[in-house]
Write a structure and sequence with these properties.
It is built from three helices and nine strands, in the order ββαβββαβαβββ. The chain is α+β, with helices and mostly antiparallel strands. Strands 1, 2, 3, 4, 5, 6, 7, 8 and 9 form a nine-stranded mixed sheet that branches. Bound molecules: coenzyme A (COA).
Amino acid sequence: MTAFRSQMTAPFRTAAPFVIRAERASDVAARETLLDLCFGDNRHERTCQRLRDGRAPAAGLALTAVRSGVLVGTLRLWHVSAGGRDALMLGPLAVAPEARSLGVGAALMNAALMIAASRGHGAVVLLGDAPYYARFGFEAAKAAELELPGAFERARLLGLELVEGALDGAAGMIVATGAPERKVRRRKERRLPCAA
Ligand SMILES: CC(C)(COP(=O)(O)OP(=O)(O)OC[C@H]1O[C@@H](n2cnc3c(N)ncnc32)[C@H](O)[C@@H]1OP(=O)(O)O)[C@@H](O)C(=O)NCCC(=O)NCCS
């Protein structure tokens, strides 16, 4: 593939089309609200969050879905070492309840996997529902020897090779390897002279 176009409009069955584009700083509030809604207040306690704490997502792999001007989906991928193999950890993936079953989740997944492959990444792992992720090629067998830094259900740890053999011999702990998250600094507000 050549370069990923910054915006893709997916064709589908409803009146309001959606767009998949790179995440923007201005998406943060809406993305956090959507994640709270989908995963609950204790989402920061989840095992996979340990692989994201204080890290930046992989370059080009933080995506947003927008429908009628509203953020309706989010997906991010993170650099990890998967038992000694360079890989990406996928998640969270979330789609707003009112925009589900329109293909938004699939569009986010397909865009992310296409970008990951085009950037030379060899493998993706995730913790999620196999019945959903199997359609994108994820399987438990590819992650059978991997561990996470906390409690997890073995059947939900899935892997996908973008390059054949990229997960061969992957065994042991999945460890975060991404760059530290850059804090977005607010520009100092300019004070206007007080009006009398
Ligand atoms: C999972 C999720 C991202 C799917 O988003 P979406 O935009 O509705 O996905 P798509 O439109 O691409 O696919 C919808 C199909 O996937 C199916 N599906 C959704 N979640 C599923 C799951 N956990 N297991 C199996 N199938 C699932 C739907 O039934 C639907 O099937 P249909 O096409 O036969 O109607 C969305 O339901 C969501 O955000 N859920 C809450 C957060 C979550 O659980 N995220 C991680 C998933 S493990």
